[in-house]
Amino acid sequence: MQQNYNVKTMLVLKFGGTSVGSVENLKKVAQIVESFDEPKLVVLSAMSGVTNTLQKISNLLKSNQVLEAHEEMDLLHQKYKKVAQELFDTNNSFYDANVMINYNMNLLYEYKETDFTDGIEKLILAQGEIVSTNLFQLLLQERESSSTLISALDFMQIDKNKEPQLDVIQGRLEKIISNYKKESTFITQGFICRNIANQVDNLQRGGSDYTASIIGAVLNAKEIQIWTDIDGMHNNDPRYVDNTFSIEEISFDEAAELAYFGAKILHPQSIIPAKERNIPVLLKNTFKPDAKGTLIHNAAKTNAIRAIAAKDNITAIKIKSYRMLMAYGFLNKIFEVFEQHQTAIDMITTSEVAVSLTIDNTTKLNQIVSDLEGFGSIEVDSDLSIICIAGDIAQNKKGITAKIFSSLQDIPIRMISYGGSNYNLSFLVKTSDKVSVLNLLNQGLFLNTTVASA
Ligand code: ADP
Ligand code: ASP
Ligand code: MG
């Protein structure tokens, strides 16, 4: 492909686990990919359920349960073989698929429980995307659609903080693409990458969205399309709330808040690269390709509430100190503890005698608490959820904040964060109250038409 990077020509098309999760769906994806005339880079997830299975295999090996791990491997092998049998019409493609599947399965069978490392876990987890992309490449080849499979491990790079190295990725990807001047369809793996030690690593669960956004940003794509199993970003979490609806357009900032605070349709960091380089992101439904979906772009502004999301597994830490809180430098000292233990803070509220913070990564909780004990008395609360309301909150038109809290009736609220940004109001509740809160807010903010059009 001869790509002029100043002109936005390229499409990045990402298909998630369900979209590539069966023979029927893989064929749908092939049709969608072939329907675009533009040059394109297709990013695929593992088939649905496969990364979970690989994680299970890895956990079993880690705990010396080799027989059980091999039973899981056998099941995965059979699943892949069945897919190959049904996916291909020609013996050649079927044969090539089996060679590829056997090769990747044999790699798994060779891992031993002894000296099992994190690096081996990452290698095991990478197999799902490697197999799905190879199957898809063979499928397009059989359909006589020209395409080239490129390995994400040859260009996706993260740094020591696990952040993508956009410049490095850009340089490598442009070089790879320029080797195939006549090709206009590339296929690559989502999720997987190399780390600073050049080992196989990944962008965390759900990371294929992030891969697509990074690639779209570095190639200055015309658009990044995330194809999934729902018709775009909904106004509330469809897993817990009935009567949700798809949002036609949304700003980068709002989408980023919702993704970070639990809207599973997007990986938490995935909007950032697209936003930074102003590449529109279109969320589409593989099973309803004609549905509009959701366009995430800069121009999308609202004067209403857009959507609600919830993030689970939140822990709150309260530090009470009568002596020190009002002293300057006190908050700084507290933040240093979190920095030292590389733990991000999601929410923070202060009073004259206490400061409350929330975290979602509790791997260093004990050390954090013990370091904080020098500052005052510490209380830790777990099993909490952050509820995030995104939209034009700051304007507070028609008393939006009053509507929010009056919708919640008797639900106890542990913390509130308002004013940190113009498009987010978030608060902390017990996870056991989450489903009620999402439903009450849906009723109060969206099904009540006077508020929805606020
Ligand atoms: P993929 O495998 O394609 O990456 P995901 O399962 O990661 O798909 O994301 C799609 C799912 O996200 C939907 O099926 C839906 O249940 C869930 N979801 C949660 N919140 C939202 C929301 N606000 N809008 C749309 N989908 C959501
Ligand atoms: N396959 C990976 C996962 O299941 C990445 C992704 O699907 O986005 O988390
Ligand atoms: Mg996903």
Structure commentary:
With 454 residues, the chain is of the alpha/beta class. Helices cover 39% and strands 20% of the residues. It has 14 helices and 16 strands. It has helices at residues 23-34, 50-62, 66-87, 91-110, 118-142, 166-178, 208-218, 252-260, 271-276, 330-340, 365-372, 400-407, 434-447, 449-452; strands at 11-15, 40-44, 148-149, 185-189, 192-194, 200-202, 223-228, 249-250, 281-285, 294-296, 305-320, 348-350, 354-359, 377-391, 415-418, 424-430. Helix 2 packs antiparallel against helix 5 and helix 6 crosses helix 7 (208-218). The longest helix has 25 residues, at 118-142. It is globular. Bound molecules: adenosine-5'-diphosphate, aspartic acid and magnesium ion. Residues 16-19, 45, 206, 228-230, 233-234, 237-239, 263-265, 307, 309 line the site of adenosine-5'-diphosphate.
Per-chain topology:
Layout (H helix, E strand, L loop, with lengths): L10 E5 L7 H12 L5 E5 L5 H13 L3 H22 L3 H20 L7 H25 L5 E2 L16 H13 L6 E5 L2 E3 L5 E3 L5 H11 L4 E6 L20 E2 L1 H9 L10 H6 L4 E5 L8 E3 L8 E16 L9 H11 L7 E3 L3 E6 L5 H8 L4 E15 L8 H8 L7 E4 L5 E7 L3 H14 L1 H4 L2
Parallel strand pairs: 1-2, 1-7, 2-4, 3-4, 7-9, 8-10
Antiparallel strand pairs: 5-6, 9-10, 11-13, 11-14, 12-13, 14-16, 15-16
Helix pairs in contact: 1-3, 2-3, 2-5, 3-4, 4-5, 6-7, 12-13
The structure holds adenosine-5'-diphosphate (ADP), aspartic acid (ASP) and magnesium ion.
The site of magnesium ion has 3 residues, from loops.
